Amino acid sequence: MTDYLHRNCPACGSRETRAEMPAARPAETMTLDQLRPFWAGLFKEKCFFTYHRCTDCRQLYNPVFFTPDQLTELYSSMAPNMDAVGDAAIVATQRGYFARAAAEGGLGGGYLEIGPDVGHIVSEAARYGGFDRFWLFEPNVTIHDRLRAAAGGRPAMLSAEMEDLSRVPDGSVGFAVMVHVLDHLLDPLAMLTQIRAKLRPGGTLMIVTHDESSLLRRVMGTRWPPFCLQHPELYNPATMKALLGRAGFADVGVERSRNVFPLDFLVRQAAWAVGARIKRVPLPPFPIGLKLGNILTLATAPAQAAARSPMLEAAE
After folding, report:
1. 251 to 232, 257, 311: CA distances (angstroms)
2. Per-residue pLDDT at 113
């Protein structure tokens, strides 16, 4: 059997859990080669590692998961984010995310994004924000030229390394973004602590994730798309606030986010929820905006900027 990673709770470090969401075919009982066909695609047979609930902090996560080397290999063959949804819907959705953050003001200093994909929010930030530099961490090097273009001629540093932000000066970033990235990370607390150090006092972090406490999750059960091989943990408003608090953030607000989906995609999702596998729907891809299963989080760096991790401070 394949050697997988065995880990404690990524939010609080506890070892105490209870199994909550097993798949019909638990990934931990299969080899890496057996799992490859299940790696990508929304409308395939469900297969994922068993999700457990931390009994201490209530975080939902996989105690058994792929190792970093296995993930690097698997992601190298993965299509761009939400490839099945369509570019127009993604653009409309991400413009809405930026508009929500812009309503809070303070869009100046440096711009930092982890996993910007092709740069839809980057282009909005370049067009409407007053950012002096863009720091973009995107593992897919084939789209780096497109990301530079999205920055609109502003100075931009691009890196394929997503876990090391040391090139970004501490206290220089006014706005940081992570859209459907946090729930892919093996060590989300370490990443959030790094980002907090890079933010200037009063700087804003915007995160978009799935909401594992949503009505959609309860209705769909194991068929809920975020229960998949790419998500080693999943969040709800309470666990998101707790995690950001541990990372040293203040003024954490979580709200349901508005996403735009093509009509035919939504019908396929509804059919999937009741167990019907429909690949094509004779409907136009008319865009519909819904608050459906995702949450948007805005958090602020404390007024007293601190580059050191609260985890290190607590250990001293």
Report:
1. 26, 18, 19
2. 98
d(CA 11, CA 234): 11
Distances in whole angstroms, Cα of residue 186 to Cα of each of 10, 140, 261, 287, 300: 7, 19, 29, 34, 23
Exposure of 161 by Cβ count < 10 A (0-12 exposed, 13-18 middle, 19+ buried)?
Answer: exposed
Residue in 68, 64, 66, 90 with CA at minimum distance from that of residue 79? 90
Predicted structure pTM score: 0.86
Q: What are the tens digits of pLDDT across the range 269-309?
A: 555 555 556 556 554 554 555 567 899 999 999 986 444 44
Which amino acid does the sequence have at 209?
Answer: T
* Terminal Cα-to-Cα distance of the chain (whole angstroms): 41
The span from the CA of 70 to the CA of 136, in Å, is 24
Question: What angle (nearest 5°) sits at the alpha carbon of residue 249, between those of residues 130 and 150?
Answer: 30
> Which residue, among 276, 217, 182, 184, has the nearest Cα to 20 in the 3D structure?
217
pLDDT digits (tens, 9 = 90+) for 108-135: 999 999 999 999 999 999 999 999 999 9
